């Protein structure tokens, strides 16, 4: 005799729900946050790593561009001295007797209004300089370097200038040993090499006394900055 199949009724929806394990919720009754997608986290890390890798490249590119600009400024963007300098008056300062400049490229240092200066005899007239008699040309400059305010020196040794300052010329120069800037007295103090861009300010000279006797060179002005 065959057994009769016994039907098992489906559990009620409420009963099935009661059998499911409860979902953990934090205090306050809100559901716990979903777990972070590992792929999304990895994508974010890759993006951050990409930008971190680009930073030194961008810094290097910026440094190279700055270096190119500095090289251009050092070699091609030097300011030209004013052909008609304007001087601010200062109290008269006796520089030296005219006899202190017997030869071309003789120089005398002095101080005008607290500014170290140098007067130089040059072989040709210079704008802002002093012409005395026939063939005697004087010009004076501030000795304060226009780069970072070190003190420049009249350097008569052209081979030293070529070797130490990397500037070749056939005549003496005004040189700054701090950062190797070079200025040309015969070009009205123009910066010709090194990091300095602006020319040296000139000092105004005049002559007092008799050329045949006690003539003296006097400074009575400093060039106004433009």
Question: Helices, strands, pairings?
Answer:
Layout: H1 13-19, H2 38-76, E1 87-97, E2 107-112, E3 115-122, E4 130-132, E5 136-142, E6 153-155, H3 158-165, E7 173-176, E8 181-184, E9 190-193, E10 202-208, E11 216-223
Antiparallel strand pairs: 1-11, 2-3, 3-5, 4-5, 5-10, 6-7, 7-8, 8-9, 10-11
Protein described:
By secondary structure, the protein is α+β, with helices and mostly antiparallel strands. It has a domain of 137 residues: Rieske Iron-sulfur Protein (3-layer Sandwich), CATH 2.102.10. It contains three helices and eleven strands. The strands form two sheets. Strands 1, 2, 3, 4, 5, 10 and 11 form a seven-stranded antiparallel sheet that branches. A four-stranded antiparallel sheet has the order 6-7-8-9. A hairpin with a 3-residue loop joins strand 4 and strand 5. The radius of gyration is 41 Å and the shape is elongated. The protein starts with 12 loop residues before the first helix and ends with a strand.
